[in-house]
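S.,

Sequence below, as promised.
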Amino acid sequence: MKANLLVKIENGEQSFIAIDEHGCVYDMRFLKDVTDRDITYFKKAAFVTEPCTMINSDQEEFLSLPSEVHRLSRINNNKPEARFTVQSVTVDFSTMQMTVIEQWDFDVKQWPEGHIRITKTK
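The prediction came back faster than expected:
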């Protein structure tokens, strides 16, 4: 049996990325098989590097991370930046062999001085 997975690695800890039925990308602790369509959607949704313009309760505009990157990075006021790797892998459970198909390194920092940098490393 084989499975295609999106694996997130941050600070030595692994989690899995899943796309729900509404097209939202989530960082999860349990194994979730993904389809080729999910991987294509992930690349389109999570690779947005331009900030979103939001309006706060005082009607002031501010820059924010796109929602998919925000969910993956888990950035908040106590964690204003994140560096993590996402791998597209195939796992053959009969031999317990894992093959990395693609890999991207994310460097994300909260705005206003922030950035989203994504480097494909494989």
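The helical segments are 36-46, 67-73.

Coffee later?
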